[in-house]
Amino acid sequence: MPRQKLDSTAISEKLGAVPAWDIDAGETALSQTFKFADFSEAFGFMSRAALVAEKLDHHPEWKNVYRTVEVRLTTHDAGGLTGLDFDLATAMDRIASSTGV
Ligand code: H2B
What DSSP string describes 41-101? Predict the structure, then answer.
């Protein structure tokens, strides 16, 4: 059930695998601000992340200003965090770590 809202215990467990992400007080969303070398790398990251998002049918809330990308992940249908948010967070970490190499 990847689109089922996770409880606090499951969230704590999963957070261990994505330590770079912040969680809000209500445990409804993950957020991270990515900073790249320049706009081209930031947009490259977004392009690759967009393909993963489409594949998962799970889409980020995000904002890009020059070389910075602010990302917020939540599952609107569930009204909170689901496994899909953690899957997308993991994929974004992987993409960001290979961007610019
Ligand atoms: N993305 C996010 N972040 N949350 C959702 O609830 C969601 C989504 N729902 N992408 C999907 C699309 C849904 O609207 C479609 C119909 O599967």
Answer: HHHHHHHHHHHHHHHHT---EEEEETTEEEEEE-BTTTTB--HHHHHHHHHHHHHHHHTT-
* Residue ID of nearest Cα to ligand 1 atom 7: 58
Indicate the pTM of the whole model. 0.96
Query: Which amino acid makes up residue 45?
Result: F
Nearest to 60 by CA among 70, 14, 6: 70
Q: In the predicted model, is pLDDT for residue 94 greater than 60?
A: yes
Q: 56 near 88, Cβ under 8 Å?
A: yes
Site to probe by mutation for ligand 1, drawn from 59, 71, 73 as the one with most ligand atoms within 8 Å of Cβ, is 59
